[in-house]
């Protein structure tokens, strides 16, 4: 077990956990839960036969099945790790298998839409505690996961009004045990915060990579060759899972469009400063933005090493 | 000496090299030239007493001075490593010291403006070979440099019409010896290519970090906490040297505004796709952008490791 993952529990937090969707996030939860003894039994459910077979090979769950209703049966905690666009359909489909009193959670990057989709399908005696671990890499699938993905990252819970306090607490303890810092806020506020810290950055990254690919005056090979000037930083998040991100934008439409509007206003000002040679305005902004990075580094959310510590064995 | 820096030369390429400006780039050239025996004598010239003192402490040059005219005296190769906005003034000021037949080069991220600034100040018998090593980190100053910064990166030469072929060849050999791949193109094309691969990405990064800092609905502490969702990637290049970047935008105005215009057109389309729920358009773009990253990785300009290989000692 990796040193910094924390001690494993002497007694599991949940008798039986079902993870729906074994991509990067689902498979990382499975690995962490296994390492830390958070669950008596871990059940992996995925609609893909291939993923289920791979999960068995990787031995990251105790049981693996494509059968949703059978998979959630007797589970004390069910976590949806699927694209936010299908959360409602999955909730509806798994309903017949849910145990009375069980907790349903998720990991979606959008919360208001997920609540609106899932809540109506859940029986009264099932507790819904939406969650969003703010962590990930640009890679996808069950092989991409690892147990420390959530270590020292934040996990946001957005319990709807009237949610069961004990259920919230159990989900909080679960994510704390995994190594995350847990914060609770409203789904609406979450969606606004994530629009600027995650969704709009991804949209901008996808956009600039697309624009560069389409230029008629600069070849794609030139874009690739000279990407070390800054462009390549954007390509990382523009390599993230297309289905997941399509769904995020469609399901957090208002907040994304609002933040994008603000960004456009600011960029129009910057363009004007460049056009009119107003160097002071540029300099002021460029000085201010350094402080934010310092804050991110000192809070432990980023490495202080130059170039993200990109591997450079030959550094002198 | 680091393993992958290549063999040091048995005979220096230049008797005497003067580096003007000992920031990240200048001090990295000094270190590489020293390691690889590219120069009989390395002279460091910086207008800052503090930088000159630090260069002496670091022992990365044979001589260090604040006196520009004395510093370039007898040099066979003079490399301007200063912000592009002051290249003309530096060229004018150093002119009395330049040895007939010497080569003057630079490392500026903008080329047409630098040529227009520098060329008029150089005597007929001095050869100007503008260069741009496409490499860097977000750190600045003489302590930030390292000898392998340019290893496997591209260095673009943009010799003006009628430039001396032998001088071009000597600069090419210099950068090859440092470990760079060298490409020759026109200054105009360079400025267009770099606008999209470097300048606009920086502008966008500075802009999004600035917008996030100014929100009234999301606190700065929330932006910092939840930055692992993608935002933190942008903060790296938005922490680059403010003076250097102010000058780049002011001196590559047309190409930057042109590329920014295209970006804005594309983002308007994306915003419209989100507003109208056109998931297919989003999905198509998000799939296309993955291929560009694969190209950058397979060309050796980026690490294949997830998350840029950010240090995660506890990865399981």
UniProtKB/TrEMBL annotation, chains A, B:
Gene Ontology MF: a single term: prephenate dehydrogenase (NAD+) activity
Pathway noted in the entry: Amino-acid biosynthesis; L-tyrosine biosynthesis; (4-hydroxyphenyl)pyruvate from prephenate (NAD(+) route): step 1/1
Segments of this protein annotated with the region Disordered: 297-316
Listed PANTHER family: PREPHENATE DEHYDROGENASE, PREPHENATE DEHYDROGENASE [NADP(+)]
Segments of skewed composition (Basic and acidic residues): 307-316
Reaction(s) catalysed (UniProt annotation): prephenate + NAD(+) = 3-(4-hydroxyphenyl)pyruvate + CO2 + NADH
Primary enzyme class: oxidoreductase
Domain (Prephenate/arogenate dehydrogenase): residue spans on this chain: 15-304
Species the sequence originates in: Microvirga makkahensis
InterPro entries the record matches: 6-PGluconate_DH-like_C_sf, NAD(P)-bd_dom_sf, PDH_C, PDH_N, Preph/Arog_dehydrog, Prephen_DH
GO biological process: tyrosine biosynthetic process
Keywords on record: Amino-acid biosynthesis, Aromatic amino acid biosynthesis, NAD, Oxidoreductase, Tyrosine biosynthesis
Top-level division of the source organism's lineage: Bacteria
Protein name in the entry: prephenate dehydrogenase
């Amino acid at each position: 077990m990796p040193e910094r993952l924390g001690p494993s529990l002497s007694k599991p937090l949940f008798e039986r956990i079902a993870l729906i969707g074994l991509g990067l996030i689902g498979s990382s939860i499975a690995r962490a839960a296994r390492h830390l003894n958070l669950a008596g039994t871990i059940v992996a459910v995925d609609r893909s036969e291939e993923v289920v077979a791979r999960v068995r090979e990787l031995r990251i769950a105790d049981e693996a099945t494509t059968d949703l209703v059978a998979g959630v049966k007797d589970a004390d905690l069910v976590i949806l790790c699927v694209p936010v666009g299908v959360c409602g359909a999955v909730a509806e489909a798994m309903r017949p298998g849910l145990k009375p009193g069980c907790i349903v959670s998720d990991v979606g990057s959008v919360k208001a839409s997920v609540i609106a989709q899932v809540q109506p399908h859940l029986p009264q005696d099932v507790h819904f505690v939406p969650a969003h671990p703010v962590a990930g890499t640009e890679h996808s699938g069950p092989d991409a996961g690892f147990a420390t993905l959530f270590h020292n990252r934040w996990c946001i819970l957005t319990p709807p009004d009237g949610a069961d306090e004990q259920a919230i607490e159990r989900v909080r303890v679960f994510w704390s045990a995994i190594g995350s810092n847990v914060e609770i806020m409203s789904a609406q506020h979450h969606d606004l915060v994530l629009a600027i810290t995650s969704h709009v950055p991804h949209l901008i990254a996808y956009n600039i990579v697309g624009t560069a690919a389409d230029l008629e005056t600069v070849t794609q090979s030139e874009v690739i060759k000279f990407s070390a000037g800054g462009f390549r930083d954007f390509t990382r998040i523009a390599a993230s899972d297309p289905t997941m991100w399509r769904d995020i934008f469609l399901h957090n439409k208002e907040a994304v469009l609002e933040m994008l509007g603000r960004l456009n206003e600011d960029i129009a000002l910057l363009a004007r400063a460049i056009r009119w040679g107003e160097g002071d305005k540029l300099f002021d902004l460029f000085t201010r933005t350094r402080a934010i990075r310092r804050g991110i580094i000192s809070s432990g959310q980023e490495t202080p090493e130059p170039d993200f510590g990109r591997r450079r064995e030959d550094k002198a």
